[in-house]
Design a protein that fits this description.
Helices cover 21% and strands 25% of the residues. With 304 residues, the chain is an alpha/beta fold. The strands form three sheets. The chain has a seven-stranded mixed β-sheet with strand order 6-5-4-3-2-1-16. It has a seven-stranded mixed β-sheet with strand order 7-8-9-12-13-14-15.
């Protein structure tokens, strides 16, 4: 199942010790990347991630710390001998500005396909290039520009019951088709469906990624029961709440409250202000709000 790496945890600008926030999710040899700020391809190299496996990019919004690494990333991917199209999903209103960054790329040996998404209504699509059972859902956020949060839902095939298939006289060469959800017809005319030879459905794996936004109550519903909830926490100083809300951002404490209300299994904080030198100083206070919080660092990893 998915291997996840938070390439960086910074917001606004990269630091010597902190790359800008970006999420790399790899599954069955294919990878998806969320956001691409300055130096993303460098961060990928530092964390030993395979840029050649990136098939899909999800962009939250067009602010510089989330998109200006795009030319470098695209050129680096091209140097990995890629020749298959690469898909980029982002708010519809951001396509013009983000696509203009490609002007400095020159020749790329593959096609880049932009897909516009609504920033006013939730949308959903299947990330076929990663997995036919991976659904990507969006939520409109509140920021200074059209901005989206993303939820990745990795559905799982139900448990296959070989003994049941044997009892029904279904040949072994048809088992894979049934397990994938297809129906089969035997030479005697009997037809069987996947439900005839499978058990209960396995719970899906959910990963939710939200930055930059006001702490909207609907985010908790969107992140409900997430195995991993990744959310911005610009500061841990409560006195900065008013100024952060004015700028369309949330505090670390806001993220913890959302994670608690969402019944998330774990929370990774990210998108720290460059002025917050030691985010870990707030860890104990944050755990009192939500015990599953991780004050993330660059290169935070997990396999779900």
């Amino acid at each position: 199942m998915p291997d996840i790496c938070l390439l960086g945890t910074g917001g606004m600008l990269p630091l010597k010790s902190r790359f800008l926030t970006s999420l790399y999710v790899e599954h069955n040899g294919h990878a998806l990347l969320i956001d691409c700020g300055e130096g993303t391809q460098v961060a990928a190299g530092v964390h030993d991630l395979k840029m050649s496996r990136i098939d899909t990019l999800l962009i939250t919004h067009e602010h510089a710390d989330h998109v200006t690494g795009l030319p470098g990333l695209l050129l680096s991917i091209g140097n990995c001998s890629r020749n298959q199209p690469l898909d980029i999903y982002l708010p519809e209103k951001c396509i013009k500005n983000v696509s203009s960054l490609m002007a400095v790329c020159g020749y790329l040996p593959y096609e880049v396909v932009f897909h516009g998404l609504s920033a006013e209504e939730p949308t959903s699509f299947i990330a076929e290039k990663i997995d036919s059972m991976l659904t990507v859902d969006t939520i409109p956020l509140k920021h200074g520009t059209p901005c989206l949060g993303y939820r990745l839902t990795f559905s799982k095939k139900p448990v296959f019951l070989p003994e049941k298939a044997k009892q029904l006289g279904i040949p072994v060469n048809m088992w894979k088709l049934l397990h994938s959800g297809e129906s089969v017809t035997l030479p005697d005319g009997k037809t069987f469906t996947s439900a005839d030879v499978t058990g209960d459905a396995k719970p899906p794996i959910k990963i939710t990624y939200v930055t930059d936004s006001l702490p909207l109550p609907e985010i908790a519903d969107f992140a409900k029961d997430s195995d991993l909830f990744i959310c911005e926490g610009m500061y841990g100083d409560i006195e900065k709440k008013s100024s952060m809300n004015d700028k369309g951002h949330m505090l670390m404490q806001d993220a913890c409250e959302i994670a608690k209300n969402a019944d998330a299994k774990r929370l990774w904080l990210t998108h720290y202000s460059p002025a917050m030198e030691a985010p870990q100083d707030y860890e104990q206070e944050l755990k009192e709000i939500f015990s599953g919080v991780v004050v993330s660092k660059d290169g935070e990893r997990i396999s779900l």
